[in-house]
């Protein structure tokens, strides 16, 4: 089974070196790593051209936007399973081979996501989420947003080529939320299956587009969900307050599919079960709330 990973770059130093190493550390031979550069001038291209790995395909498409480049990569990919990894994010050791095994052993599974995790600018892991549920209807309705049930984590997503083709690929009319909009269309065709293991990490370094251009991202999300069903007025009211929003996520339990590794059988098993939507435990949220209160008390009032 061939796995295609697409990475787009534009002046991606210094993180691109860690990103490519995290992909190419895999010993999986049937890997196609497509890197599309939009015309870097900070040393990124020189570094990418120095990669001596037959699994790497470097394409320079000057002036192309991130989503345009990703979509071009997928439309020219030859893999049975696709994923895209931003030029500052990371795969964990064993990710590629595990993904290939999962899609081979579970032929009916169309797309998967691993446990969300985060690393800092130096690549140190700072947080790993707890297993949670991803109700198919909620994804299709566009309810997995920062202001409701939290964002779906793009770098941990892997899907079959046929699903991307049936969904019609990325809508290039979106500047920042094309991946969010794509997930709503994926969910029309298949449920998202959570995997109880780490597959990828999102690097938070302060200049992430999703952070620096958050207002534009939310405008894109609003446009993408304009004609989709809305959450109930009561839930919408709860989501206006951060603490109430986290309580809602903890209270929402759904029966959804997931894959876990059975220590008894020494193999992966696919099952369904009830889980909360929240990716954070009650204890962790309680500690964060205390930290927020303590920080507020330290701020001088005039």
Explain the overall architecture:
This protein has 302 residues and is α/β, with parallel strands linked by helices. The protein has two domains: 1-88, Spore Coat Polysaccharide Biosynthesis Protein SpsA, Chain A (Alpha-Beta Complex), CATH 3.90.550; 108-298, no CATH class. It has helices at 16-24, 44-49, 66-76, 95-105, 136-140, 161-167, 178-189, 209-212, 214-224, 233-238, 242-251, 282-298, and strands at 3-9, 31-37, 56-60, 81-84, 90-91, 111-113, 117-119, 125-128, 157-160, 192-195, 200-203, 253-262, 267-276. A nine-stranded mixed sheet has the order 3-2-1-4-9-6-10-12-13, with helices on both faces. α6 crosses α7. The radius of gyration is 20 Å and the shape is globular. The model has no long low-confidence stretch (mean pLDDT 93).
């Amino acid at each position: 089974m061939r796995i295609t990973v697409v990475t787009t770059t534009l002046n991606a130093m210094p993180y691109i070196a860690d990103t490519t190493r995290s992909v190419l550390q895999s010993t999986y031979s049937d890997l196609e790593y497509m890197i599309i550069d939009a015309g870097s001038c900070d040393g990124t291209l020189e570094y990418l051209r120095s990669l001596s790995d037959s699994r790497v395909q470097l394409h320079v498409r000057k002036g192309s936007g991130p989503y345009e480049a990703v979509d071009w990569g997928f439309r020219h990919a030859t893999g049975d399973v696709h994923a895209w990894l931003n030029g500052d994010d990371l795969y964990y050791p064993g990710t590629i081979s595990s993904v290939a095994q999962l899609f081979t052993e579970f032929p009916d599974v169309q797309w998967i996501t691993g446990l969300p995790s985060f690393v800092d600018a130096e690549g140190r892991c700072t947080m790993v989420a707890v297993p949670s549920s991803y109700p198919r209807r909620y994804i299709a309705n566009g309810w997995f947003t920062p202001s409701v049930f939290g964002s779906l984590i793009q770098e941990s997503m892997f899907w079959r080529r046929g699903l991307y083709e049936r969904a019609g690929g990325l809508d290039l009319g979106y500047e920042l939320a094309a991946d969010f909009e794509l997930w709503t269309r994926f969910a029309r065709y298949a449920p998202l299956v959570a995997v109880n293991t780490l597959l990828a990490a999102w690097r938070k370094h302060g200049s992430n587009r999703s952070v620096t251009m958050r207002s534009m991202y939310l405008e894109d999300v609003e446009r993408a969900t304009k004609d989709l069903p809305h959450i109930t007025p009561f839930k919408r009211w709860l989501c206006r307050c951060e603490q109430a929003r986290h309580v809602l996520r903890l209270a929402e339990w759904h029966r959804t599919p997931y894959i876990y590794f059975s220590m008894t059988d020494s193999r992966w098993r696919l099952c369904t079960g009830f889980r909360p939507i929240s990716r954070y435990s009650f204890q962790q949220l309680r500690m964060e709330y205390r930290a927020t209160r303590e920080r507020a008390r330290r701020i001088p009032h005039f």
